[in-house]
Amino acid sequence: NYHEWESSMRNAFRAKRKLGFLNGTVTQPNDDASEIEDWWSVNSMLVGWIIQSIESSLRSTITYYDTVKELWDDLHQRFSVGNGPRILQLRSDLARCNQNGQSIAAYYGHLKKIWDELSTYITNRACTCGKCTCKWAADLSKERQDEQVHQFLMGLDDEMYGTLRSNIIAQDPLPSLNRVYALVVQEERHKHMTKGRD
Among the three residues 79, 99, 114, which one is the final residue of a domain in this structure? Predict the structure, then answer.
């Protein structure tokens, strides 16, 4: 999965403070600049990291580029599937995602994987107030989390968790996704203990 790989690589480059080489904010110095050798050294190392992270069956199809930015852009153009169809597929997967007898951890893990991939396609909108005092980002984050709480609760097995789901949905404001997950896991454990006594 290209988008999963891309996200992982971005994270690794960010951790090493080299993301600027990928997005073009760290540019190649002039050939007579004193830092040119250092730039080429880092650039070559990053090209190597990317090449080594690619599956061996695909590696032979990769065109050689001098700069990591050119390589990164080429890979993006070749392997990035259009966002529209993938977003539709992920939203469809979310709509059909149900517990179906799985453990809560397995069901939640499946949902989380879909949410995480979907978040790579969603553009984060920026605050337009100019002062960032409008709580816009916090409100948007809460809205997304509430949506995930609803999606998680909708897919739970009705017979086992219908009452708990109703109790959680009745709360205003909704608890955080982590709190809801903890409540559902607690209920799962309680039901397993009760079932074991019967």
Answer: 79
- Judged by average pLDDT, the poorest of 45-54, 115-124, 136-145 is 115-124
My answer on whether 149 and 178 are in the same domain is: yes
CA 75 to chain centre: 19
Residues 112 and 47 in one domain: no
Confidence tier at 88 by pLDDT (50, 70, 90): very high
Count of other CB atoms within 10 angstroms of residue 28: 15
* Sign (positive or negative) of CA dihedral 103, 179, 153, 151: negative
pLDDT tens, 118-143? 887 776 666 666 666 677 778 888 89
pTM here?
0.65
Q: Which domain holds residue 161?
A: 83-197
Task: Tell me: do 40 and 73 sit in the same domain.
Answer: yes
C-alpha separations of 154 from 33, 65, 147, 168, 191 in Å: 60, 48, 11, 12, 19
Residues 55 and 87 in one domain: no
